[in-house]
User: Fold DEAD/DEAH box helicase from Georgenia halophila.
Amino acid sequence: MLDPVELLRTTGARDGRLLHLEVLPARPGRTAEWPAWADPDLVAGYRRLGVDQPWAHQVSAADAAHAGRHTIIATGTGSGKSLAAWLPALSAVRAGRAGTAGGPSSGSIKAYDRRSSILYLSPTKALAADQLAGLERLLEAAELRDVRLTTCDGDTPLTERDWARDHADAVLSNPDFLHFSMLPGHRRWQRLLKGLRYVVVDECHAYRGVLGAHVALVLRRLLRLARSYGAAPTVLAASATTAEPALTAARLIGAEPEEITAVTADMAPAGRRTIVLWQPALSAGWPAEGVDLQAGDAQDEPFESGPRRSATAETSELLADLVSAGARTLAFVRSRYGAEVIAEQTRRHLRAVDPDLAGRVAAYRGGYLPEERRDLERSLRSGELLALATTNALELGVDVAGLDAVVMAGWPGTRVSMWQQAGRAGRAGADGVAVLVASEDPLDGYVVHHPETIFGVEATTFDPANPYVLAPHLCAAASELPLTEPDLTLFGLPDASLLEELERRGLLRRRPTGWFWNIARPERPQNLTDLRGGGESPVQIVEAETGTVLGTVDGARADATVHPGAVYIHQGRTFVVDALEDDVALVHEKSDLSYRTKARSESSVRILSVRDEVTWQSRPHGDEVTWRFGDVEVTSRVAGYDRRRLPGMEIVGSYPLDTPERVLATTATWWTVSEEACADAGVGKDSLPGALHAAEHASIGLLPLLATCDRWDIGGLSTAVHPQTGQPTVFVHDGYPGGAGFAERGYRAALEWIRATRDAIVSCGCADGCPACVQSPKCGNGNAPLDKAGAVRLLSLLLRCRGGEAAAEPVGETRA
Assistant:
């Protein structure tokens, strides 16, 4: 096999695609003795599987959990976090079966009913299935037949659920199953809950934003019910390396950070890992005629500017090169469609080189049958497959070892995800290489030109106190067990006012013994919310002539995507929407359409309250910028749509739409600056709207650098004169009811955020603004007006007010 690093050096250095190469040195591992309390048969099983001694961090975490302390182990990918969780948990089950602590061998039915049990929770069904397979291998190696394991989720048949309730010692599931099935039917699960010793929360860094808030409340409901049955379970959370892991675990279970033991020192061995930051090649036909890059017409570094290939095309070519070199590789992609496209393009590249190699590349994504996924994983492990193009389905813990390289098509969204994906290469102490290919997103461009940003860690952001998330969980909790005054602290309530509001709305009923769910209501309380963030019913897309259901679209996106007159594409067929009503979009097929459609929206932001504010002041000039964080109401409406002619997408017609307004109560951060200060900075009245708009777009694109969110989780608005502030104002708000913590994180790190935003715009090689700096794929105004140079001046003004930093490049010198 050719050295993947040398291959990348050779192909990337000659045309400027390889921007940065960082080598992380190998490190030796440090082991410890098996704990004296560990079950000897389990230890023997681990040894037969090749684990002669555990790593020191595994023992630290296992000891803490065995002692009954809530524990989080936050170490790197492939560091053996599963052993740290399962060793104390399975040892407790074995100890109960041996007759200790009133175990079942005492002959008592009551003792059998309270035998130790384990509940394992993962973000995905695939990970739970993978963990079950690993545990079955361990028990087989340990020659143990008395530990009963099973997975239980929404796909599990009723007969298997009955067996799990009656007999399983360890149930592997997910938070969704807890919310919709186990907790509402807890009386049928009381055997498991009475003996619950450990709750294992795997890959807990995946629970961020609104999903994190939901999962935190589900876990609190679980612990509350377990305590009502006399159990006192220990929570053991496993996470990728993240900032403040003890705080994350405490917020998940409603505890204080000092009650959590955090194990963060990774003592597992690691091979040399090479991180490569890569920008796509210039598009075919660039430079344009008359541009002499060597003479410096564009800028000092000739390969910086100009239109570039997509991250998808670049990743396909890199993947083909690595497969040709014999490297076993994963390519991570953001979407299911992207995984299929990259796999097919890679196969096409390889057919011209070696048709046999083309057959050793496949796609891997959600939507496949479980048997298909297991077969693909098995083929990759065995070497039959050399490469998979995959979504993040293979990011979260699924055991695929022995890989040589990873290619990431675009920034994965957070540093945690980036390191999880990069960690798939070179596992088990072997060398590996990970390549991050920049997409057109401004954050991607910033990251690959600022390598230092990827080597930090970030905190997991979520807010369980969000009343829009909390209220339905309180209803669900009240239906499971009446809510009482002591529950206020568990759910983070300062007082009973939210419960009283739910009582006024007829959802709860107050009795002397607490608050009860109003059983006269027609709905199940668990159906009041969806953990995965969906709030509106999906809209079905139906072919009018045949009645065939072509697909669905999220209800919140229907006005913008399947409004009357919209063009809808399905598997290469083109349709036009005739009508949208009653959660159904009726369409008719129309081939050879010469245009596509794009919706136009309008929005406004009303400030409801200010929670916090700070003023930055430039002493030499007296300019002031005020930052605020608080509650806002965002009103939006799809006002019309444009028809755009193919292939250039020029607007050939604009049409109005009569759609309802949507109101979102959420949280936002916003900054205001006087019109006079803007004028002094070189941004006059004519250019001010475009400068504010460009600054808003770029700051939304860069916020995921600081908060664990995606740009689609947040929105924004800019205006030259806001009716409430009376000044030029830029808002960035969370896209979820009640907020998700992202805007607040931006407010707390405003200086770092604005500096990164300005640097990203300045470093972009375009002349007037592009998708890599100030254009947005979600702009409701068609990315107009935008003033890149004005945005740089405004952001420089903000930085001067904060700390007297030097101004940005004059507009005439903005690199083109």
The CA atoms of residues 240 and 357 lie 34 Å apart. The longest helix spans residues 209-228. Residues 40-263 form a domain with the Rossmann fold fold (CATH 3.40.50.300).
